[in-house]
Amino acid sequence: MMRSRRRRLFKKNKAPKDSGQMSLQITSMADIFTILLVFLLKGIASDALTISPSNGTRLPAGMNTTALSESALQVELSDKGILIEKEFVTGYQNFEKPFNDRLGKERERQKLIAKSNETVKDDARAILLSDQNVPFSTMKMVLRTLAKNGYSEVKFGVIKE
Amino acid sequence: MSANFGSSNQQDVDINITPIIDCFTVLITFLLASASFLSIGFFEVSTPGNAVDAAQSEPDTELVVRVKGNQIAEFREKGKKNGTLRFDLSKPESVKTMEAELDVLKSNDYKLTQILVSADDEVGFQSLSQVMGHLNRVNLPVIVGEF
Question: What ipTM does this complex have?
Answer without folding.
Answer: 0.74
